[in-house]
Amino acid sequence: MKVAILIACGLLFPGLSVAQSSGSAPKDVDGSNSSRATKDIVPLPSIKTLTAGQAAGKKLFVQRCSVCHLPALPSYTAFGPLLDGNIVTSWGEEAIRQRIQSGSVKMPGFQYTLSAAEIEEIVDYLKTLDFAKKD
């Protein structure tokens, strides 16, 4: 009896996964299944072009900062300013380090979860970003 139930489940579940993946995704205006247009994709530098410290900073940035600080999609509002090399230049590296460490009214501080070396890696990575409009 148990063998018959296992065989029935084995035959049923692969059919469900095929049904879920077969063209049921809504199509965009251009007919593609992509939920985002190509122009909305944020180009982040490849790890191959970064130093080891910058690559580590990219990983930390994507894990800890990107949800609030990457450019917004049309249906998404960024919580904080877009962080890139221009912000680091205008605010100064020390001010950026201090903000990451201490936070602000809207942003948590990371002094207890990130080391000084990790904060430095994030700042080094931010200097590689440039989100200025290039139209």
Task: Explain this structure.
By secondary structure, this protein is an all-alpha fold. It has a domain at 47-135: Cytochrome c-like domain (Cytochrome Bc1 Complex, Chain D, domain 2, Orthogonal Bundle). It is built from 6 helices and no strands. α2 crosses α6 (116-126), α4 crosses α5 and α5 crosses α6 (116-126).
In helices, the fraction of residues equals: 40-55%
Report the mean per-residue pLDDT as an integer.
Answer: 77
Ends apart, CA distance between termini: 67 Å
CATH fold descriptor of the domain at 47-135 = Cytochrome Bc1 Complex, Chain D, domain 2
What is the CATH-assigned architecture of the domain at 47-135?
Orthogonal Bundle
CATH superfamily of the domain at 47-135: Cytochrome c-like domain
Q: Please identify the structural class as seen in this structure.
A: mainly alpha
Stretches with pLDDT under 50, minimum 5 residues: 16-26, 32-36
Q: What is the H/E string?
A: HHHHHH
Share of residues in strands: under 5%
Radius of gyration: 22 Å
Q: What is the makeup of the main sheet? A: none
What CATH first level of the domain at 47-135 would be assigned? Mainly Alpha
What's the total count of β strands? 0
- Secondary structure tally, helices: 6
Shape descriptor reads elongated
Structure summary:
This protein is mostly helical and 135 residues long.
Task: Tell me the layout of helices and strands.
Blueprint: H1 2-21, H2 52-64, H3 66-69, H4 85-91, H5 93-102, H6 116-126
